[in-house]
Amino acid sequence: MRLLERMRKEWFMVGIVLAIAGAKLKPSVGVHGGPLKPEITVSYIAVATIFFNSGLSLKTEELTSALVHIKLHLFIQIFTLVFFPAAIWLFLQLLSITSINEWLLKGLQTVGCMPPPVSSAVILTKAVGGNEAAAIFNSAFGSFLGIVITPLLLLLFLGSSSTVPFTSIFSQLFMTVVVPLIIGQIVRRYIKDWLERKKPPFGAISSSVLLMIIYTTFCDTFSNPHIDLDKFSLVLILFIIVSIQLSFMLLTFIFSTRNNSGFTPADTVAIIFCSTHKSLTLGIPMLKIVFAGHEHLSLISVPLLIYHPAQILLGSVLVPTIKSWMVSRQKGVKLTRPPV
């Protein structure tokens, strides 16, 4: 009974294990072009569901107040699109003297140049109970910025340039992020009393969608023939990627929790996830465009293909720890406030 109760409480962690195991056993089901059609169900329907769900659950005043939190937005965007790629470039100067394949190292640089994802950072911020409105804004805004900035960063660091179909990417982002969010907010206005009375499980819905994203992502990873590298290189790249993620999460945590930072614990949660996550959905198409016809495109893509599932897995594992920190910090803030 205790085990069943524990599993019920930790259903999301159990779901992650089952999703990865299922992807390993039968990757053809959730692979791009497979029976689940993730190029439609995940890229469009799942992402739209996440943002409709967010629009429905978020109070309008929370969303509007998040829009004017300029300091928070600047921190996330500068960290993601300026500090991250520059720090990776410096780190790769050290790794260049090792025996690691140079094209895998170039792939690590492309990871640093990528924009934030439109879904995973929002879901994880919501799961912790952080500033979801700020996460939504920065994920969407960062993705739009990345369409222009990422090709320029790739040109700066790798010397590769190409024309990117801005119109089609902009329209996809607008239809899957902005439109569902607005519709969710409109619907909320008419059923606000019902939502506050019934309190639907918005967090569980978002987490279930994330499990689907995890499953299809690992299906693509396990079925990708280009990841057939020697085990030493794969393990080394995986270790480097996890180390980068943990280091940058720790760095954003330290900077955003300083006494004079001006950020709340909920803001810190959004900063941790939005600043360190990178988009596979936008990243892979961009790599295919920028490095079209390149003989080492498959090797360049490997680090991003590893980074994406690793960030979701690592973030999901850290949710309980970050949540307990945020709750205790918020209680501490309430206790130290002088009585009115």
UniProtKB/TrEMBL annotation:
<keyword id="KW-0472">Membrane</keyword>
<keyword id="KW-1133">Transmembrane helix</keyword>
<feature type="transmembrane region" description="Helical">
    <location>
        <begin position="103"/>
        <end position="124"/>
    </location>
</feature>
<comment type="function">
    <text>Involved in teeth and skeletal development. Has an essential role in the biosynthesis and trafficking of glycosaminoglycans and glycoproteins to produce a proper functioning extracellular matrix. Required for extracellular matrix mineralization. Also involved in the regulation of cellular calcium homeostasis. Does not show transport activity towards bile acids or steroid sulfates (including taurocholate, cholate, chenodeoxycholate, estrone-3-sulfate, dehydroepiandrosterone sulfate (DHEAS) and pregnenolone sulfate).</text>
</comment>
<comment type="similarity">
    <text>Belongs to the bile acid:sodium symporter (BASS) (TC 2.A.28) family.</text>
</comment>
<keyword id="KW-0812">Transmembrane</keyword>
<dbReference type="GO" id="GO:0005886">
    <property type="term" value="C:plasma membrane"/>
</dbReference>
<dbReference type="GO" id="GO:0005789">
    <property type="term" value="C:endoplasmic reticulum membrane"/>
</dbReference>
<dbReference type="InterPro" id="IPR016833">
    <property type="entry name" value="Put_Na-Bile_cotransptr"/>
</dbReference>
<keyword id="KW-0739">Sodium transport</keyword>
<dbReference type="GO" id="GO:0006814">
    <property type="term" value="P:sodium ion transport"/>
</dbReference>
<feature type="transmembrane region" description="Helical">
    <location>
        <begin position="235"/>
        <end position="256"/>
    </location>
</feature>
<feature type="transmembrane region" description="Helical">
    <location>
        <begin position="169"/>
        <end position="190"/>
    </location>
</feature>
<keyword id="KW-0915">Sodium</keyword>
<feature type="transmembrane region" description="Helical">
    <location>
        <begin position="202"/>
        <end position="223"/>
    </location>
</feature>
<dbReference type="GO" id="GO:0060348">
    <property type="term" value="P:bone development"/>
</dbReference>
<dbReference type="GO" id="GO:0000139">
    <property type="term" value="C:Golgi membrane"/>
</dbReference>
<comment type="function">
    <text>Does not show transport activity towards bile acids or steroid sulfates.</text>
</comment>
<keyword id="KW-0256">Endoplasmic reticulum</keyword>
<dbReference type="GO" id="GO:0006874">
    <property type="term" value="P:intracellular calcium ion homeostasis"/>
</dbReference>
<keyword id="KW-0406">Ion transport</keyword>
<keyword id="KW-1003">Cell membrane</keyword>
<dbReference type="GO" id="GO:0015293">
    <property type="term" value="F:symporter activity"/>
</dbReference>
<feature type="transmembrane region" description="Helical">
    <location>
        <begin position="40"/>
        <end position="58"/>
    </location>
</feature>
<feature type="transmembrane region" description="Helical">
    <location>
        <begin position="136"/>
        <end position="157"/>
    </location>
</feature>
<keyword id="KW-0333">Golgi apparatus</keyword>
<protein>
    <recommendedName>
        <fullName>Sodium/bile acid cotransporter</fullName>
    </recommendedName>
</protein>
<dbReference type="InterPro" id="IPR038770">
    <property type="entry name" value="Na+/solute_symporter_sf"/>
</dbReference>
<dbReference type="Pfam" id="PF13593">
    <property type="entry name" value="SBF_like"/>
</dbReference>
<feature type="transmembrane region" description="Helical">
    <location>
        <begin position="70"/>
        <end position="91"/>
    </location>
</feature>
<feature type="transmembrane region" description="Helical">
    <location>
        <begin position="268"/>
        <end position="291"/>
    </location>
</feature>
<dbReference type="GO" id="GO:0030210">
    <property type="term" value="P:heparin proteoglycan biosynthetic process"/>
</dbReference>
<feature type="transmembrane region" description="Helical">
    <location>
        <begin position="297"/>
        <end position="319"/>
    </location>
</feature>
<keyword id="KW-0769">Symport</keyword>
<keyword id="KW-0813">Transport</keyword>
